[in-house]
Amino acid sequence: MMDEAFISTSIKKKEGFISSGIEKLDRLLEGGLPSGFTTVLLGSPGSSIEILVKQIATIGNVTYITTEETKDEIIDTMERFNWKSPDINFVDISAKYYQSVLQGEAKRVSVYQQRSKLKLKELIEIGSQGMPSTSKAEEDFLAILSNSVKNVHQEGVIIINSLDFFMSQYSQEDVLKTIYAAKVSNLNKKGALLIVMTKGIHGELFERKMEGLADCVLELDVVQKGSSFERFLSVKKMRNYAKKIGIARYVIDDSGFVLEMIERIM
Amino acid sequence: MEESERLNEIEKRRDIAFNVALGKLLETNGKLETIMQTGEAFGRGLFSDYIKKNTDNWTIKKWFDTTIENIFEPLGNKFEPLKISNNEIQSALSTCPLQQKTNEPHVASLFTYSYIRGMLLSTFPQGEVIMEKTPLGDEKQKTQFIFKTNASAKDRFE
Lengths: 266, 158
Hints:
The complex is a heterodimer. Chain A is an alpha/beta fold. Chain A has one domain (4-95, 139-264): P-loop containing nucleotide triphosphate hydrolases (Rossmann fold, 3-Layer(aba) Sandwich). In chain A, 41% of the residues lie in helices and 26% in strands. Chain A has ten helices and eleven strands. Chain A starts with a helix and ends with a strand. Chain B is α+β, with helices and mostly antiparallel strands. Chain B has a single domain, classed as Trafficking protein particle complex subunit 3 (Muramoyl-pentapeptide Carboxypeptidase, domain 2). Chain B is built from six helices and four strands. Chain B has a four-stranded antiparallel beta sheet. The radius of gyration of chain B is 15 Å and the shape is globular.
């Protein structure tokens, strides 16, 4: 059986496009992602969007800004799928964030015990009622994002997984400004900027703003059909390439993300 | 947009966001932090879409009244103010429909706390929401919410 990493690297690069590393996705996009494009990947829980972005990351020359999983967790998943992970620069915001939360939690337990003389068991009980607060992290994660994007090489791929984290920490305006700056930087470097966000949290207005800012919008959905679930990837927007709008069914198997049927809408 | 339509829209939006949070909780094998992050992101979105346009000169009282009118009432959350000062409001949450309608009341509670926190921090970045279970007189135990515009380190770690 052909090695998946080999398949990724063996896909022929089309001039002016950056391959996604997934042959059928490139075919759906008729060559891959046009250089300089900002792509928003909108996903629902259960759509396995995180597997898709990890597979795209295997193409190399990638800066992977991770907020939900640590670098080690990502590498573990890649190894499970037998994907090689060459030339990935991880910006591990997740590890930094969880470290600050853990520190905050330790202080919280200590202060709480000291002040209320509650036993740890009672504290856990209160915690399980879903009432904890977290410490305000001291790191400026938007600045880390911004600097990481600036340091990307020419024609480099930037993956932000995911925007949800920044939206939970900063105002929409601040996040949009940073993303717009990242878009301009990516355009100048003729790379590919991929931004992952979950559908349904941020409101239609913000989703529309992001779709307006993006050059390309890919949406991953899960639809229940009887007792089974089907997953679909739709190309909702492709600036200057109207005929690329399409939809495809996909599954996740041992090799990763596999597109099955492709249907062109325009 | 009709008032009833708008109310329905906020409720629908809350339910979608809550279901997304539940989905993310499953995907991350139960990391409660994902509920916090999803809730806070949702709260910041609510602030941006429904509250921000009302005023720029915020006081905690103005924030509380505006949020009750635009968000809490449409969502059926009933807050009773107990004590109001320049930079702090103590209040009791007596009704939280999301907790009552879901099979996951603990997650609903955390999600509710998180989106309220997201809305407060959008207005007062140095603020904090503190929750306490407080018996109020002879009444049934209620959850007390303390909204602060400037939180101390102790507030943040409690």
